[in-house]
Each structure stands twice: as C-alpha cells, then as structure tokens.
Amino acid sequence: MYSKEQITKIRQLINNYFDKGEVFDKLKKKIESEKIQIDDLDNEKLTKLLRETNLIDNLILDIKHLDEIDEYNKQNKQLTFVDPDRINYRSVSLRIFKGKAFLDFIEPENSKLQLYLSFCGQRFASAIVDASVEPEFNELFLFDLRTEAQKANVDLLTLSKLDHPIELCVIQIQNGQRKLFSQKLIEWRFLLCYGNISLNIELPTTYNTKMQNERKNHVGILQIHLELLPKTGLVLLPENIVVSQLSKEKSVNNQISDRFHTYGNAWWNDFKELKLSVRPIKLYSESQDGIWRPSCTFIRELQSVRGIMSPNHAARFVSLIPMKTSDRGPSGDRLEVWHRFPTFLALKGGDFEDHCLLLCSFFLGFNLDSFVVFGSTADRPHGWVMTRLQKPKKPNQKQAEYAYNFWEPLTGHKFELNDPKVAQLYKRIGCIFNHKYFYANIQENDSVLKTDLNIEDYTKWKAVDPNEITLLKPQNFQITLLRQTIYADELEPKLEIQLREAIGSYRKIINLATRYDEKLGSIMQIALANYETEKITGLQFAQFEFQSAIRSYIPEGHTFMSFPICFNHMNIQKMLEDIKTSPVGGEVLTARGDQTYHAVRVKMEIYPEDIYAVWVSVSVRFHKIV
C-alpha cells in the first residue's frame, strides 16, 4: 500500500508525465496511423493505444524508480535534497554501495568516514559511517543536468560537451579532527552512451595518506552505480562521440597547459633578470591531487551563493572556518597544498591560502575588484585579500584613483591602507592575483608601507598576459553551501551546563564555592545578541537597555564583571583554558567575596556547512571583602 505522501507524488508524476508534449505527439501519431476517428475512442481503445505505444509501461518504470527512492529515504538518513518531481528531468543517479580494501582501517581506532560529492554547483554529504575494511555507505544521490537559466532538459549531444566531472571527497574523522583520506574526479559522460554503468572506483592516495606509506598507489575501492534518468524516451549516443569529445578536451587542455608552461618559464626568466630581493611569487601552486597548477586557476567568481548575503557576511563566514596549519613533509618543510573549495569546506578547516582563495572568490561574486595578496608577516609567509574601490572621477581626470582595503581572512577584519594595524600585521608583498590577472611586485622596496598598489603601472608590477590566463581551465566551479544540520536552541543549553560544571570544578580546586544567578544570565543575553551583528555590520543595538538593566540589577556596593569571548569550536576544556588565560576572564573565574554569584550564557550563530560562532559570556557579581 502507498502512503498519502507517495500517492501525491505519483499523481504529480503522472500529471507532469502527460504534460510533456512528446507523450501526446506519440499518441496522436498512433491514432493517425491506426486511422481511428476521435469520436470512436473509448476508454478501452485509449488504454490499448497507450499500452501499444509503451507510454504506460514507461510511466510505470518511473513510478517504480520513485518507489526505490522513497525506500532509500526510509532506510538511509538522507537522500538528495531534491523536489519530488525531479525524476521527470534529466538527472544522473549515483548510488554508492560499499567500500572494499580500505586497509588503513584493519584496526579502525574509532575512525569515521564521510563522503562529499560536488557536481555543477550541487553538493551533497553522506551520513557518517564507521571506518572499516569494507565500510557500508549505502547512499543514493541525484544530480540535475538541466540548464540553470531555462530549467529545461538539455540534449545528450550538448551534455557530452559538459567538461565537469563529479568530484568525490572521502573524509576521515578521528578524535574530532578531519583529514582528506582520498579524492577522485569521476567521469560520468559514458552514461550518455549506455544509460547506466557500474564501476569499482580506485581511490588514490593523497598528500596525507602518501606520507604514511610511500608505496601505496590507492587506499581503497568504492562500488558505485551511475544511471541516466528518466529512463524513458532516451536515444543514447554512439560511444565514439563521447570518446572523441574526451580525446579532444584532453588534447586542448594539454596544449594550453604546455603553452602556459612555456610562457611561464620565459616570464620567470625575465623576472629573475631584474635581480630583486627574494620575494614570494606564486605563479604556480600545488593542488590537492599533487599537480602544480597556475595559481590564478584556483580563484573563481562565486555568484549568488545562498547563505552569503554580503561581502561582510562572506568575510565572517570564511573567518569562522578553523585555521589548520598545513602538515609537514618528511624533511620538516610545510606541505603547501591548495584545496579546491568543496574539499576545503568538507575538511571544515584549512591553511591561510584556502581562506584567501575562497574569500576573494566570494568578493568577486559581489562584483568587487578583489585580489589575493601573497606576502609575509614578520616571521612567516602569509596571504590576505585586497579590494580596491574606484573613487568618483574629478573633472578632466584621466586616470582612475582607488581606495584600497586589506581583509584578513582568518579574522574577517577589514583595514584601510592607512590603518596603523596594517604595518603591524603585514610586512612584505610579493604578488597580487585573481582569476584574470597576475602581478609580481618588481619595486625595489617590497614592504607593505612602501609598495605602490597601482598594479597597472608596468614599471612597478610585472604582469602575466591576461590572454594566457583566460585560456586556462579553472580548478574550481560554482558551489552550493550545504544547509545546517545543527541547531542553536538544542546546543546552547547543553554548552551552558557543561561550562557551568567545568567552571565549578575549576573553582573547587582553588577552594572556592560556585553559585549561579539565572537572572543575571538572562540579562547578559542582551549583550550576546549584539556581538555577532556587530562583527558583521559594525553596528550596536540595545546598549542603553543593557546598561540600564545591569545598573538596576546589581546591588549598591557590589562589583559586576563580565568577559565575552567567541569560539569556532565546542571543546569545553579549550574554552575554559582560553577564559582562564585572559586577564579579565581569569579574574571573573577566581572572583571571591560576599554574595558571589556567577552567570554563564551561550549564544550560537550557525551558518551554512555547520560553520558556527559560539559566543560565551562569563559574568560575576559580588561584594568585595576589605
């Protein structure tokens, strides 16, 4: 028996099916070929015609497939995030069954695995499963092949020219830490020849897994099944068309790569002839698959990304993604690996380069003139993002003038060029680039304060020919951010309880009792609500109300102290350590006196991808004993 929801879906499927012009065209041709008069048609004859033209059988196939999807939805945690009528449109169905020969997990040591898939701006995440030699993923995903502009089916010949593989990331999770276990680009276009394909995908080693065992070429096998949907009315392509297209793309990409390599070598030799001081020029960078690629190809203009409403929101979102220092190789040198955006988001962390590339790409999507700046701080390589805003032109002014801002991707802070903090944070500038342009700093003095940022001045900046960059194949595509799966109203009370217990235990060690004031905590909620808004907009609200509430609540002669702090993790012990080591926080935790009451309040702001800010306020009111 079908549920009410399934019946609704089937009705919708039938309506959509018969709305398609091809159904009625086939039926009309059949009626004309049989020379049947419309007046002579009855239910019995119509049903017979529908069966003879296979229209009913094809519809039943689609309903059966809808049934399969519903069954998967019941058995597995989540499926596809797609509309019920999606089955009527050109899609790729990807089933992932299980893994084999994951030999790193003969002794899994509480490891978990999670899959992330990206294709044509669509991203999905699997459920987290236990790591084992044969992990059971058992997932089903649907990728839409319709054009975004028209939301219409695209013919198969056009699809054969869609040079966009399905990107698969396998993430290992252990002790709360994520690392890239493997990644694979899956070529799906042979589906246009066969309709469905079963594959055993060999998962290659990455920079992480290769360090553990230099002899390994792959770390496991993944059983998958690909299918082109809907199954009805498909006229498949001859195999030679797809083979020819793939061969042509490979040849063109190799030619472009060789051409840029030749050009880049000549450009670099010219640069070296200038005999400047050593400075970081990132013409090429190593990608996550171990291949050195032009740095400009890692940046992409990201437009209309849901969940990122403004450049300020973009800066805040990127700053909350945890900073994870790159691993070090056998020689002890830092492994400088630049990740593609889906991998960076799946890892929920990365080094400063990953933050820079994503933030610059968000800014470009808002039509800001944005660049990644690669240089250094006082003691290490570093990168940040520069935006330049064109000032209104004065009468008879020929050359444009710009106002420059530096954005620190690890904090989200924006600095005008004349801000004293700029000189404190950043020391040298080696190169500036985005998805269209690359400029190397050829000024004698490359310090931040002395560098002229007019990149159009060829006497101060050596440019790569933009026409050469335009030919390059980008490493990143348009992305969609995954919806949140964690919720503040569930987590905030739990974190408050855990923090109270941790603070109570700490004060007990130093022979201090701890009592909590619920009303004081409620008042602190006003301040906490302000902090995240202020981070994004720079504006404050309800300050007068908060101060008035505190003044009227704290008894005369009593001392009130409060310490707010923001975290991008939920590790209670780390939180407590950070509060203790802060001068104000430590004083709040160790406060002693008559009628001493503490308050702990937590406010979470959750962004897409389960990236979050945890605002914690620890407060105390007490009467000092003289």
UniProtKB/TrEMBL annotation:
InterPro entries: CEP76, CEP76-C2, CEP76_C, CEPT76/DRC7_peptidase-like_dom. It comes from the Eukaryota. Residues 336-463 form the CEP76/DRC7 peptidase-like domain. It is found in: Cytoplasm, Cytoskeleton, Microtubule organizing center, Centrosome. Residues 89-232 form the CEP76 C2 domain. The keyword Methyltransferase does not apply. GO terms for cellular component: centrosome. Residues 487-622 form the Centrosomal protein of 76 kDa C-terminal domain. The keyword Cytoplasm applies. Keywords: Cytoplasm. This is CEP76 C2 domain-containing protein. It comes from Paramecium pentaurelia.
